[in-house]
Fold this sequence. Notes:
The chain has helices at 21-33, 51-57, 60-82, 135-148, 252-258, 264-298, 305-325, 330-337, 341-346, 349-369, 375-386, 392-397, 401-425; strands at 2-9, 12-20, 92-99, 103-111, 151-154, 164-172, 184-190, 212-218, 232-246. By secondary structure, the chain is an alpha+beta fold. Strands 5, 6, 7, 8 and 9 form a five-stranded antiparallel β-sheet that branches. The protein starts with a strand and ends with a helix. The relative contact order is 0.09. The mean pLDDT is 91.
Amino acid sequence: MKVTRTNKSPTQVVLVVSADQFDLTPIKDHTLTHFADKVKVPGFREGAAPAALIEKYVDHNALAEEFTNHALNELYGKAVDQEKLRPAGPPQVQLKKFVPYTDLEFEVEVEVIGPIKLPDYRKIKVAKAPVEVTTKEVDEVIKSLLQRAAERKEVERAAKTGDELIIDFAGKDIEGKLIANTSGKDIDVILGSQKFVPGFEDNLVGLKAGDKKEFEITFPKDYGVKAMQSKPVTFSVDVKKVNEMTEPEADNALAAKISPFKTFAQLKADIKRQLLAEKQRQADRAHEDELVNKLIEKSDITVPKSLVDEQIAQAEANEKQSLMARSQTWGEHLAEEGVTEEQHRERQRPDTERRVKGGLLLSEIAEQEGIEITQTELETRINLLKNQYQDEKMRAELDSPDNQRQIAAQLMTEKTVAKLIEYVSR
Length: 426
């Protein structure tokens, strides 16, 4: 077999593969075995005739077609191994020449993972930010606990700061059209909690049960949803109930009532421990992300476009499924974001490309470090995940080959990042 390679780009390769009778005869003999139980050869029971006789009685067009498919697949695989390619997508194959079973030539164009040049990843250093929990953060959690444990008494008077209101509300744009995710029914609002968009709660002070009010609020320019930043929204609010709240004392009796602790001091200490643990997890994730970003920055790698497109398509499919669960259409979501479908896709490209680069680099390091996932590790992780689901169908889905591959890949990433952290810590 002869292979001629042309690199159109770092990620685009053209192979011209030529094979002679020496290469093709074993493939033909193997293909003939597929016809053994389909061809009746005089003097032989079904499936027992030798290949040479089967060839005399077989449909030659059917044989040629199956032989060609088998030859292209096998020879392409050998050419990929010979050239040490890592295909990133399906090949485009064009048959150039075929003299039955003595001469075959075809051309393949395939997108591949280009050369990867790793830095000395053992020497990459990334500082880890220290974490701490402030008294204010602990007090905010305690305040939330007190509000949840507060005694609520419905009142007829006008609402004031500290009261809880039960409301229906809806947000509309300047054209009077409802805006997705700016409406709600039977929503509780504690005036002064500042959990709604700035200015919303202020407009509810002084209202009574049965009151209706319409007011306009301009969303902050740094609001979390980009499409809503600096956007004026007209809210209509229907107040259904006003509750006066009497918060309990922050004492040992409350601690025993709402927690497994006997004293409020123990509860407060546990709140601080949990906050610290969560902050530590966030710091660990940030440290890992920064380490991988540094690895990407110091590496030389060109990402195949098809891999990035595939990841973007998968992310969009997941997003659409999530929207369906919220009874929102893809078109409504795009309108809410203020982008076209193409803009939505392209704005994901930089982060997606970074993730793909990171994944390829970590795979390269895993190979160099000899990192492997054992069957025991995979089964342990799958069982842990199954314990998170009550639905038997969801639990069974974790055993599917696709999900097992994804779980194994995640485990490999975790083990490889842990190895990098080990080097950083030295």
